[in-house]
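Design request, tokens follow.
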């Protein structure tokens, strides 16, 4: 759709926003139809999950009650009292019985579903409860003895109450016979506590839960339950979970049936369909409210996006078109401190940098042309050639043929280097050899008045590549200016070292011509941006070429030497090379 691509950002964003809103209207109908079903399913799953958790929790609590009863059976005081052959004084007997009662109280407090716990000691004719110590009722004892857990796991119903009865034979199945005087611990289960804990399981209005027994378990409900509902589930098998919809008296119920083999009971959760629909009715009304708010939001959004995005973009596009037309004195203003404010700020900064780069490129082009011109000047130095040839002529006339041969050899090497067309950079080793030839010629010319010391450089320093003719101009400057009036004892020293990622080439002399004013002027000129040379020597030219080639950390730094004259330190950045060299 080319027409869509030609739309502005404002209309594209608004169109996308409307397209996002439109499915909300379509989904509204879907939400009404499917929302009730999905929420209903979630409620059913939640009820089923709560039911499974509850039946598991009830099993754990009642299993814990049985474990506590076992602890009572193994109590030392009860064991002592139960042995009829043991002779116990009346005082000790009372103390032990009180301790047994305290133990029973602690046990009852440790489990919410134990309403009362009783120990029958037929050998002592005593019954101990959490509240009393009294003579035993043998009829009652015999009834409870017949309903112990070994024969009737785990519960028995006596006079409408549920009990868990335990005797020592529970954990000692090898007893040959049952004694009529057998120790008995009976725990009465709190039906009220179980009923209260089942109240909130269903989670919907009109729902509830109950426990039904398979004949040996619990029959407890959380409230009034219709007989028809109880009859509907009474015949369901206890071999697995069941979820089923049942109609009872024209009312639909969702029923969950979760049996427990340990409890011989099943938890039944029933929820009427009307309870679900009451919960879901509020959803349909909210759909239309959200839709109306969405339409209003589209209108507000269109006004906002026009002011926040469209107008700033139009202003920025107009400025970019001006720059495209060659107008670089463009500034855009934006009063807010947001993303567009940052973009406007960066645009202004970019235009400023563009102006500076254009100026810098122009300045560097002029400087490079000037540097090439200066380099040609160094290549063709007629005075040096003229003076050297005169010296050679004099040596020959006076018969110093060996010296003349040396002079012409160094002179030929010197002019071979500066006239040979070498592409690009050269090795520093070649530059060093070039100044050796130059200084040897000068030594012969000045007849020992000036001594030149050139340190041997490490291989890692010799192999770096540098622009041509960066050493000779500075060495020549020392001869022409620093040492020109030295009649004897003149010294020129050249040394090399490396400090981290920088190579330092130090050229210094012991001349007496350098004043502080001249030194300050040289420092000032070297600190200026690259431009056409204004210094009276070639040092500025070398400095500018090194800064262009290796960056602004490179160049020439001048100062006063410990020898007394000028010290020129050539600094060359070599990058991140990790080599072992003579350190500074």
């Amino acid at each position: 759709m080319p027409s869509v691509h030609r739309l502005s950002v404002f209309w594209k964003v608004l169109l996308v926003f409307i397209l996002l809103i439109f499915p909300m209207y379509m989904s509204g109908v879907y939400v009404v139809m499917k929302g009730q079903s999905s929420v209903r399913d979630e409620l059913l799953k939640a009820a089923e999950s709560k039911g499974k958790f509850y039946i598991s929790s009830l099993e754990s609590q009642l299993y814990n009650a049985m474990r506590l009863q076992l602890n009572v059976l193994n109590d030392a005081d009860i064991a002592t009292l139960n042995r009829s052959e043991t002779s116990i004084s009346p005082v000790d007997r009372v103390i032990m019985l009180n301790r047994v009662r305290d133990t029973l109280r602690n046990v009852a407090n440790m489990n919410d579903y134990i309403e009362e716990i009783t120990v029958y000691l037929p050998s002592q004719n005593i019954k101990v409860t959490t509240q009393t110590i009294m003579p035993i009722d043998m009829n009652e004892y015999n009834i409870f003895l017949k309903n112990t857990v070994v024969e009737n796991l785990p519960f028995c119903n006596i006079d409408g109450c549920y009990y868990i009865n335990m005797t020592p034979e529970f954990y000692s199945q090898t007893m040959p016979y049952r004694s009529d005087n057998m120790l008995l611990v009976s725990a009465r289960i709190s039906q009220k506590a179980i009923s209260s804990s089942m109240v909130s399981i269903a989670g919907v209005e009109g729902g509830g839960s109950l426990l039904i027994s398979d004949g040996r378990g619990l029959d407890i409900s959380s409230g009034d339950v219709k007989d028809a509902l109880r009859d509907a589930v009474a015949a369901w098998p206890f071999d697995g979970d069941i979820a089923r919809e049942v109609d009872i008296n024209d009312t639909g119920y969702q029923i969950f049936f979760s049996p427990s083999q340990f409890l011989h009971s099943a938890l039944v959760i029933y929820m009427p369909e009307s309870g679900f629909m009451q919960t879901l009715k509020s959803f349909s009304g909210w759909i239309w409210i959200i839709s109306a708010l969405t339409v209003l939001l589209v209108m507000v959004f269109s006004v906002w996006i026009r002011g926040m995005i469209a107008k700033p973009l139009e202003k920025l596009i107009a400025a970019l078109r001006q720059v495209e037309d060659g107008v670089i004195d463009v500034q855009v203003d934006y009063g807010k401190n947001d993303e567009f404010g940052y973009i406007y700020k960066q645009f202004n900064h970019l235009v400023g940098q563009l102006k500076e780069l254009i100026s810098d490129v122009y300045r560097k082009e002029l400087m490079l042309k000037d540097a090439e011109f200066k380099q040609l000047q160094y290549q063709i130095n007629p005075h040096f050639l003229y003076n050297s040839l005169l010296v050679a002529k004099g040596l020959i006339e006076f018969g110093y043929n060996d010296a003349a041969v040396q002079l012409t050899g160094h002179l030929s090497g010197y002019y071979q280097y500066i006239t040979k067309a070498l592409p690009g950079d050269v090795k520093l080793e070649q530059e060093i050899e070039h100044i050796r030839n130059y200084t040897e010629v000068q030594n012969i010319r000045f007849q020992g008045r000036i001594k030149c010391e050139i340190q041997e450089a490490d291989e890692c320093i010799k192999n770096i590549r540098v622009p041509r003719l960066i050493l000779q101009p500075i060495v020549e400057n020392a001869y022409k200016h620093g040492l020109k009036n030295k009649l004897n004892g003149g010294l020129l020293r050249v040394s090399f070292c490396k400090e981290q990622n920088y190579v330092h080439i130090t050229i210094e002399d012991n001349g007496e011509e350098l004043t502080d004013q001249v030194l300050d002027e040289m420092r000032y000129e070297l600190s200026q941006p690259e431009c056409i040379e204004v210094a009276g020597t070639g040092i500025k030219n070398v400095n500018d070429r090194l800064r262009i080639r290796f960056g602004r950390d490179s160049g020439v730094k001048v100062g006063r030497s410990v020898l007394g004259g000028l010290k020129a330190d050539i600094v060359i950045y070599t990058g991140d090379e990790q080599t072992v060299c003579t350190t500074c």
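Comment from the thread starter after seeing the answer: thanks! Residues 485 and 511 are 8 Å apart (CA to CA).
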